[in-house]
Write a structure and sequence with these properties.
about 120 residues, alpha+beta, Pantoate--beta-alanine Ligase, Chain: A,domain 2, 1 helix, rod-shaped
């Protein structure tokens, strides 16, 4: 049995290094894409939770209840809820604007407008 040495058999060291560099580049791009996706999902979760806080605050105000405080925790995220009352052309209605912000960054996440019946004071 004769074994023949063929210069074309197998990969050279340079070809192996180029292949590893291409794989490393692909892995880095996949990692950055996954990181960006995670950030977008986290931001979306915060916005959805902020909307729920705004809806809850508006509902409490419509029922005539003053919310317990302006700081609300939802999904483990701390939010600041602020609201303003504005008179309308109808004397029986007030416009409510609820603004929900992230407590840490102060970034406004959700703004909700609604109307509430003016209750007669006795």
């Amino acid at each position: 049995m004769n074994q023949r040495q063929d210069s074309e058999a197998g990969f050279t060291l340079i070809e192996a290094l180029v292949a590893m560099a291409v794989l490393a580049l692909g892995a880095v791009s996949l990692l950055s894409a996954a990181e960006g996706h995670t950030k977008r999902i986290t931001d979306l979760t915060a916005r959805v939770a902020a909307r729920w806080v705004a809806d809850d605050t508006l509902t409490q105000l419509r029922l005539g209840l003053e919310p317990d405080g302006r700081s609300v925790t939802m999904y483990g995220i701390e939010f600041d809820a602020e609201w303003d009352r504005t008179e309308t052309t109808d004397p029986d209605l007030e416009q409510l604007t609820v603004k929900v912000s992230d407590s840490d960054s102060g970034q406004s996440l959700y703004l909700l407008d609604g109307y509430v019946e003016v209750r007669a004071t006795q």
